[in-house]
Structures are given as C-alpha cells and as structure tokens.
Design goal:
260 residues; 5-stranded mixed beta sheet; 13 helices; 60% helix; 13% strand
C-alpha cells in the first residue's frame, strides 16, 4: 500500500495511466455516474473506491464550468459533480474537452488531499468542508482566456504561470504533493503515451534518419501530418499539441535521436 501511494504521488506517467480510463469514460457521451469502484486501481485507497463522479450539463449563464463536492458522512461517500454550460458544449468540442480536463484536475486535488489526511477524522473534516463550498467556477472570460493560452505559441513558458492552469490554482490547503498540477493538466490533455500511439519507435527512427540526412522537407512533412492527425483525433488546439510534443522530444527522445 505504501508503495502504491508513493507511486501515485511521485510518478506522473503512473498517475496518467491509472486515471486515464476514468477521464476517458467521463469525456465520452456518458450521462451516467462513474463509480471508482468499477476501476480496480482504487480499491485500496481509503474508501475512495466508493466515490462517484458525474458530468452534468446545465444553463450556467455567466459560468462555463464548475465543480461541486458533496459528501455523505453516514456512508463515507463523496460525489464529485462536474457541471458544464450546455451551450459551450454544443459550440466547441475543443473547449468542452479542455474544461472537463480542467475540472478533473480539481477532482485529483481532492483525491490527493484525502490520501494525505492522517486519519479518517481528518479526512471527514476535509470532505465536510468541501461539501459546503463549490471548489471552482470558470466564467466566460476565464474559459476563453484558458483556451487562448493553450492555443498560444509560447505555451510552455506561459501555462505554468496562468492562473487557471497553474499548480497553486488546484491545490487544496497545505498538501505536499511533489507532482505539479499544471504538468498533470497538460499531460491529461495529451500525454507521452498518446503521442507514442501516433509516433511509434519505427516512425521516430525513420524521422530521425531523415533529419540526420538533412532531408528536412520530408521530415517536416511527416511531422506536420502527425500533428494534423493528433489535432483532428484528439480535438485539441494545434499550437498546444506542437508545444507539448516539442517538450516531449526534449525530455524523452533526445537520446533516441543521438543513437539513431
């Protein structure tokens, strides 16, 4: 158990792997509550397997997204509601996806705060406090500013400092999570594993050979086609995908390029 908690607090790719199925189900056209008990990875985490996440649509007027935490002390069950403005959902699939991931990171902050609670009484007090408040509301201005930042070419530099996506925006109280919520937000939108589905080792090898042979036009053609496929299939802003992939190249594939 201690080993699992250590991994889930320190290993970004592990966190993405175990929570991705929950987020995928949430992002689908699913009006039914999602029970964490249906995912085997959460059975050991202090009754968190009993938690429920629901995605709802409503006429929110000035807000475009919000989340509400409701806690049943008698049964020790938390219900986390993500509520999206129904009009924005119909107008833009990109913004819908960004908002769902944004609110899902708020859910993760509740998860981490609870596994950090020293005992069941501390956890219940935390959840009772969350019961009384709405954890987050994203209004019209913040929604489109968030989309704009994700679609700006200077994303890598700007995203961590932008209020709606920075680490401190998501934190609840004094948790000591080593992972950066901004990094989680970016990687739940598009992760290294997702990129590998489009650009596997064989394709990367061919791409790196073209670069080393100074066949830059051919390499750029391949790279741009992959970007276009990602943008189309994953429903994400192109500049975000470009900067996220560029960051991945620097972090994960530099040695692979050198050894090709």
């Amino acid at each position: 158990m201690a080993g699992e908690i250590n991994k889930i607090k320190n290993d970004l790719e592990y966190v993405i792997d175990i929570f991705r199925p929950v987020l995928d189900k949430l992002q689908g056209n699913n009006d039914n509550p999602i029970y964490l008990s249906s995912f085997t990875d959460f059975s050991e985490f202090k009754n968190i397997g009993n938690w429920v996440i629901s995605l709802l649509k409503a006429n929110l007027n000035s807000e475009k997204a919000m989340n509400i935490t409701r806690y049943n002390e008698k049964h020790d069950i938390l219900h986390f509601y993500i509520i999206l403005d129904e009009l924005i959902c119909e107008k833009s699939k990109e913004i819908r996806k960004i908002l769902i991931v944004h609110e899902f990171i708020h859910f993760l902050s509740v998860f981490y705060a609870c596994i950090d609670a020293k005992d069941i009484n501390s956890r219940r007090k935390l959840l009772e406090r969350l019961y009384k408040t709405s954890s987050d509301e994203t209004n019209n201005e913040k929604t489109f500013e968030l989309f704009k930042v994700l679609n700006e070419s200077n994303l890598i530099d700007e995203l961590p400092s932008y209020e709606q996506a920075n680490d401190s925006h998501f934190r609840i109280g004094k948790d000591d999570l080593p992972l950066d919520y901004s990094e989680l937000f970016r990687n739940f939108l598009f992760s290294r594993k997702m990129f590998d589905n489009y650009f596997n080792s064989e394709k990367r090898k061919h791409f790196f050979i073209l670069l080393k042979e100074s066949k830059t036009d051919e390499a750029n053609y391949i790279f741009n086609n992959i970007l276009d496929d990602i943008v189309k299939n994953e429903i994400l802003p192109k500049n975000f995908v470009f900067k996220q992939v560029s960051d991945m190249f620097l972090k994960f594939y530099a040695n692979e390029y050198i050894s090709t």
